[in-house]
Amino acid sequence: MSLALDTSVTRTTGSTITTAAPAQRHLSAVAEAAAPAPRLRAVPAGTEARGFVLYVGIDELKAAEAGTSLGDIVSQLRALTQQLAPAAETHAAVALAPEGSGGRDVDVVRLALQDPAALAKHRQAEVDEEPGARGGVVVDISRKRLLLDGDVAPLTYKEFELLQYLVLREGRTIERAELISSLWSAGDDEEAPNERTIDVHVRRLRSKLGAFEDIVRTVRGVGYRFDRHADVSIRQASTPSPDVF
After folding, report:
1. Would you put residue 221 in left (φ > 0), alpha (ψ -120 to 50) or beta?
2. CA distances to 4, 20, 72, 86, 186 from 60, in Å
3. 224: closest CA among 165, 146, 182?
4. Exposed/middle/buried for 224, CB within 10 Å: 0-12, 13-18, 19+?
5. Which of 38, 157, 162, 208 has the lowest CB atom count within 10 Å?
6. Which H or E element spans position 224?
7. Is the pLDDT of residue 131 over 50?
8. Which residues contact 223 (CB under 8 A, 6 or more apart)?
9. What sign results for the dihedral spanned by CA atoms 104, 106, 110, 113?
10. 230 exposed, middle or buried (CB, 10 Å; 0-12, 13-18, 19+)?
């Protein structure tokens, strides 16, 4: 840190205070003036920088351990921004991710908030993964597909929706009426089934599950339930499914 005096500049380094001569001060000032302003990243031609995003990876538990909260952190960052640049506008978004999401907090936040670089890295990792590396059933919610022993099952859009609805409510018995009201809206081209014909849709889904058909169980007199087996894995999307949240 430098303090301007009448005849010299006092600089503090650790506990030692030294005094620079006026000539040295002049050379230092010239060097500082000639130094280029730092830039975060080159701006492509035809565009202009309008702001920035700061991704902060911390959950409420870690914030509490540090004696604060997410709300307090956001408030203080906003206050600092207003202090540094009163004309700046701010917007805060809390990142939501499925419970138990692995990886570093900041990486989970970047994916949840759709950071382009993080999404590209995530997609590349999925491409690099061998589809047949894992046998059994893979319900790939992120890509809307079902893998059986490494092969993509020929599910229709509505069949995958039905399976996904049950999978995201694992262990809970879903009544036929709930499936109809949730999966067939008034604007659908396909006519909504009644409680009897919903069984036909489930039978078609099971026929395509083949040897794994028992992951969709019938609860007699009530409806259907998804039961996960040891050979069943779920590949979640980077953000929570919209039919749950």
Report:
1. left
2. 44, 49, 11, 29, 40
3. 165
4. buried
5. 38
6. strand 223-226
7. no
8. 173, 174, 175, 176, 178, 179
9. positive
10. exposed
The conformation of residue 243, written as its DSSP 8-state character, comes to: T
User: 98: which residues sit within 8 A by CB, 6+ positions away?
Assistant: 236, 240
Query: What are the two backbone dihedrals, phi and then psi, of residue 140, each rounded to the nearest 5 degrees?
Result: -95, 90
Find the Cα–Cα–Cα–Cα dihedral 143, 241, 73, 52, rounded to 10°: 40
pLDDT tens digits for 174-205?
888 888 888 876 555 566 667 777 888 888 99
Residue count (the chain): 245
Token couple for 75:
């408030």
2 compared with 46, residue with greater pLDDT:
46
Contact 233, 134 (CB under 8 A): yes
Residue 137: how many CA atoms within 13 Å on its side-chain side?
22
Whether the Cβ atoms of residue 224 and residue 172 lie closer than 8 Å to each other: no
| DSSP state, residue 37 | P
Query: Residue 141 contacts by C-beta under 8 Å, 6 or more apart in sequence?
Result: 164, 167, 168, 234, 235, 236, 237, 241
Structure tokens at 62: 């870690």
Give the position of tokens 């990142």.
Answer: 95
Residue 129 carries which side chain, given as an amino acid letter? E
